[in-house]
Specification:
By secondary structure, the protein is mainly alpha-helical. It folds into 2 domains: 88 residues, Winged helix-like DNA-binding domain superfamily/Winged helix DNA-binding domain (Arc Repressor Mutant, subunit A, Orthogonal Bundle); 31 residues. It is built from 7 helices and 3 strands, in the order αααβααββαα. A hairpin with a 7-residue loop joins strand 2 and strand 3. The longest helix is centred in the C-terminal third of the chain and has 26 residues.
């Protein structure tokens, strides 16, 4: 005899729908909410001095090593090379990145963070760390650990889902 799993109860289906809705609403707020706009300005600057999140991602990679080939940088950012080029152009214009010719092949453009870029990155990292510490202060240590585990799993699931989309599955 084949044993079947019981059908989900209406209550469990309602809880799933409710939690799915809450997660969806939270995701939207994280991406577009008014609080996120204020936080972005707090972390990355405002006005002419502001950096966009993609520029901060680029700067984080630039400070991680001495220099990057543009193609490697685009791959590490998981963006199209033209998108990486635009991000770098804005960083160069702001004086926090520089382009140079590769010493092995003058046709290859290398990109690196300037000293001003390294200082700006350090300030962002320090401010982000203090901000997260303040935001997570209401969480007990075990709750922070659990939250980190859930976020890791969520990001992995997102990456897996996107890979499936990329492969037409």
């Amino acid at each position: 005899m084949v044993r079947r799993s019981p059908e989900p109860s209406a209550a469990s289906a309602e809880r799933e729908t409710s939690s799915d809705s809450r997660i969806g609403a939270a995701w939207k707020e994280l991406r577009r909410g008014a609080a996120m706009s204020v936080l972005r300005d707090h972390l990355f600057g405002s006005g002419d001095n502001a950096l966009e999140p993609g520029q901060v991602d680029t700067l984080e990679l630039l400070v991680a090593r001495d220099a990057w080939r543009m193609s490697e940088l685009a791959e590490a950012l998981r963006v199209d090379p033209s998108t990486a080029t635009r991000a770098v152009q804005r960083l160069v214009k702001a004086g926090i990145a520089e382009r140079t010719a590769c010493s092995d092949d003058a046709r290859v453009v290398m990109v690196s963070a300037t000293e001003a870029g390294r200082v700006r990155h350090r300030a962002i990292v320090d401010l982000r760390r203090a901000t997260l510490k303040a935001m997570l202060a209401t969480f007990a240590p075990d709750e922070r650990e659990q939250f980190a585990e859930y976020l890791d799993r969520f990001v992995a699931a997102l990456d897996d889902y996107v890979r499936q989309l990329d492969h037409g599955s």
